[in-house]
Amino acid sequence: MTAPSAVAHIGDVACSGFLFDMDGVVTATARVHERAWTRLFDGFLAERGKGEAPFSADDYLQYVDGRPRVDGVESFLASRSIEIPHGMASDPPTAHTVCGLAARKDEMFLHELDEHGVAAFSGTVTLIRRLREAHVAVALVTASRNAVRVLDAAGLTDLFDARVDGLDVDRLSLAGKPEPDTYLEAARRLGLEAGSCVVLEDALAGVEAGRRGRFAVVVGVDRTHHADALRDAGADVVVSDLSDLEVRFAAA
Ligand SMILES: O=P(O)(O)OC[C@H]1O[C@@H](O)[C@H](O)[C@@H](O)[C@@H]1O
């Protein structure tokens, strides 16, 4: 893409690119994912019949939120010292493998999506439109393989100058969040350095990715009262909605 022609300031920091996470930042789909994960793991733990503690909101934040689907399954199972075969990407939802559980979770997520549709956060959409009017570059960076479907359902497909999603993670063999690779790839596609971009994230793994990638600013979006955890993971600024983020516009 052509070089962006403007910067926007967060505090004293000039940012030429804004890199938005999707679920929980742009669209109200973080809770939809969490519900599907809870159904998946509670069913799985019950089937094991070992009286293990159910999947909790904290499990979601620590081990699953923001990570690619298969990484989420692996990370949660490791936290409980549960070992099952990895399996293959083509495994059906009934398979007792990591990939089978991931497929089962996707079925549950897509079912919820079809039933309830997708809502967008108006504070985020307004900010993106202001950035675009000011010719500041904007990208979407999500672990989700369902990004196009979710954006289409929310009517937001054409809002971004670049998109890096879960399909790119596989196609380009990128490490998922909390590694910074997907954010670095988005900055590269915008023709920018990490040091001139801001990362906007609600997931601990995503904030960590922003910190590890040495981005100019990491904004934590706290919709579930986990502001301290977002700061501990590396957020420079925490807001409860992006309508509260102070952004100043100035020509480059
Ligand atoms: O299963 P998908 O749509 O590929 O999404 C992968 C992950 O995407 C992240 O954005 C969500 O925070 C996770 O909950 C989700 O598991």
TrEMBL record:
Keywords: Carbohydrate metabolism, Hydrolase, Isomerase, Magnesium, Metal-binding, Phosphoprotein. It is an enzyme of class 5 (isomerase). InterPro entries: B-phosphoglucomutase_hydrolase, Beta-PGM-like, HAD-like_sf, HAD-SF_hydro_IA, HAD_sf, PGP-like_dom2. Its EC number is 5.4.2.6. SUPFAM superfamilies: HAD-like. NCBIfam families: HAD-SF-IA-v3, PGMB-YQAB-SF. Belongs to the HAD-like hydrolase superfamily. CbbY/CbbZ/Gph/YieH family. This is Beta-phosphoglucomutase. It comes from Rhodococcus xishaensis.
